[in-house]
Amino acid sequence: MSTFWKGLLIAVTFIFVVTGGSLIWLQWRLDQETVTPLAIANPNGTSGKALIVYQPGLSSFPKKVIAAFAEGLVASGWQVWTTTASSQAPAAVASYDLIVLGSPVYADAPGKALARYIERVADFGRRPVVILLMAARGAEHAIKLTEQMVAKASGRRVLSLGLTTMKPNDEANKYTGSNTHRAIQIARDTGRALQPAIH
Amino acid sequence: MVTGQFAAGGGGSLTLELLRLLPQFLTGLRLVSALLLWWLVTSLEFQSALICLGFAILSDAVDGSLVRRFGVPSRAGAYFDATADFAVVAAAFSAFAHLEIYPTWLVALIALAFLVFILSSIVTPMIYDPIGRHIGGILFVATAATLLLHDFLVQSVILSVATGSLGMTLGARTAYVLAAYRHL
To answer: B157 and A19 in contact by Cβ < 8 A?
Structure first.
């Protein structure tokens, strides 16, 4: 066997091993919960008390979108409590006026940690729920699945928003500026404009 | 993909002279296509970006055989070829980083691997680096897969494969350069 073919064989074997290893690691990692303390922003907010529970995901995009949405809520006077979807996240949601559920989309479905959190809450008591999903391209199917989970847990969905990295978030202005910056801006504006929508 | 490359030789008909320049022309076009690829990816025109990448891959496959047939392989030509490959890959991954598909450090890792490749090739031509020989191909496939398969999970796998391949080639080259210095 020539050096070239031997090298190619090693390269292909290496890629298979790394791909397989990555898939196993990712399956494990995506199943894991990220535990973070419940953080509060704008404790003196008078518009209401919002709880944001989100799955951070593997890239920085979901976290940035959630942070922008929280900023928008704060800007319109909400008291915002934020934490990651885990067994430590508050399951008793009766004291909140708004619940925001966020997650990246993997293989057309919301993250498992968020799905488990919704199951754990079990009863949102007809509280208004915002669904905020971040996807590479299409979030529609994942949004539908999440809406079904929320409805099953007696949540009152007031808004579903899917933001993407690879599909124009603003088709009319797709050639100006960054698509991800636009996603962050949309999340911030939506958070800010939410107040009249839920009352 | 670094192979023996070209330098136009003298003499012969005008057609032959032009044919001898064809590989350089193709490599030059590949270098220019890097800019176009960056613009297409950041504009979310993924189908057009895929066609642009297809041209880059095709020109990379063709220019080597054209050199062997019509030109004279040269070290400068090989570096020009590698630089054009690097430009295409760097343009694609910096565009992906701009879209927050991959982290910025991956672009830095690709640049570091290219720099180490150039420096280690100057220091010692005898390096056992089976991944490095195919790293351009691996990164081209990673780019194509990113343009075709739009899913965070797939992108995480691609990130792992690209990082692992770059890490392995960097490790192999560094170890060989260090060993070469020890023998001096």
So the answer is: yes
Domain assignment present for residue B4? The answer is no
pLDDT recorded at residue A57: 84
A 151-180 residues with CB below 8 A of B? 165-168, 174-175, 178-180
What is the structure's pLDDT at B12? 58
Q: Cα(B26)–Cα(B98) distance, rounded to whole angstroms?
A: 28
Q: Which residue has the higher pLDDT, B124 or B122?
A: B122
Most confident of A43-47, A114-118, B10-14: A114-118
Q: Which tops the pLDDT comparison, A196 or B165?
A: B165
CA–CA separation, A182 and A165 (whole Å): 10
**With 90 as the cut, is the pLDDT of residue B23 above it?**
no
**CATH (domain of B34):** 1.20.120.1760
Is residue B6, in this structure, part of any structural domain at all? no
DSSP string for B8-42: PPS-S-HHHHHHHHHHHHHHHHHHHHHHHHHHHHH
Q: Look up residue A108 and give its amino acid.
A: D
Structural tokens at position A194 = 């939410």
pLDDT at site A67? 97
Judged by average pLDDT, the poorest of A12-16, B61-65, B69-73 is: B69-73
Residue B1 lies in a domain: no
Spatial separation of the C-alpha atoms in residues A73 and B1, rounded to whole Å: 51
What is the CATH topology of the domain spanning A39-198? Rossmann fold (3.40.50)
Whether B134 has its CB under 8 Å from any CB of chain A: the answer is: yes
Which stretches of A32-60 are DSSP H helices?
Answer: none
| Domain containing residue B151 | 14-183
Q: Give the count of domains, chain B.
A: 1
How many whole angstroms separate alpha carbon A184 and alpha carbon A177?
12
Judged by CB atoms within 8 Å, which residues 4-63 of B form the interface with A?
Answer: 42-44, 46
Whether B34 is in a domain gets the answer yes
CB burial string B124-149: b at 16+ within 10 A, e below: eeebebbbbbbbbbbbbbbbbebbee
**Chain B hits for A8, Cβ within 8 Å:** 130, 134
In angstroms, the CA A36 to CA A5 distance is 49
**CA atoms lying within 13 Å on the CB side of residue B139:** 33
